[in-house]
Amino acid sequence: MEWQVVAIVSVWVFFFFKQRPAYDCSYVFGGSELVIRNSGMPARTRVMFGPPAHASVYFIYGMYYCCTAVSAPEGVGEAVLVRALEPLEGIDLMRARRGRQNPVELCSGPGKLAQAMGITRSHNGADLTNGPLFIFRGENLKGGIVTTTRIGIKAGAELPLRFYLAGSAFVSKK
Do the beta carbons of residue 90 and residue 2 sit within 8 Å? Predict the structure, then answer.
């Protein structure tokens, strides 16, 4: 098994920030509507309300996987979307998966990084402290952290919930 090691250089915070009346049973999530039916919570969001430090992987636009890390206590819908990575090890495998040679093009967006890292729906619910995906505190942070608003959404667009490493060439959009 070939290891892939990356540095997280850009994230967004997602949470259920507006509950509509109980009879409506819908929530606003990350700028898009999700309907919670009487049969319960949709599978796409179930993991996000589970215990922290687990991957919540979902499919968007019918073509891309995205990976979030659940960040709140069980029962609270909150996660951090990994938006961009800096490849450090296992770059040849990432290149093969993405069909790109330039390291900057491998993980500079949530769909790209999932493809480069081989993240699929099978990783949904994975414990991020016990593999197969791991997140741990890195060393030698170069540059400061920029705090700004998220891009490409409507609901909550004014909230400062996007964070990225200043000066990183691997950040998808600044």
Answer: yes
Q: Which domains does the chain have, with CATH numbers?
A: 5-165 (3.10.300.10)
- In the chain (174 residues long), the average pLDDT of successive 10-residue segments reads 86 66 36 41 77 92 92 87 94 96 96 96 94 83 85 80 92 76
CA distance 70 to 55: 6
And the tokens for 56?
């919540």
Q: Could you tell me how far CA 8 lies from the centroid of its own chain?
A: 10
Cis-peptide, bond into residue 51, ω within 30° of zero: no
Q: Are 126 and 51 in contact (CB under 8 A)?
A: no
Burial of 146 (0-12, 13-18, 19+ CB in 10 A): middle
- Tokens for 30, please give them: 């990350």
H helix intervals, 30-130: 43-46, 91-98, 110-117
What pTM was estimated for this model as a whole? 0.82
In degrees rounded to 5, what are phi and psi of residue 171? -70, 130
Whole-number Å distance between alpha carbons of 125 and 132: 11
Main-chain dihedrals φ then ψ at residue 112, nearest 5 degrees: -65, -45
Query: How large is the greatest C-alpha to C-alpha distance in the chain, in angstroms?
Result: 51
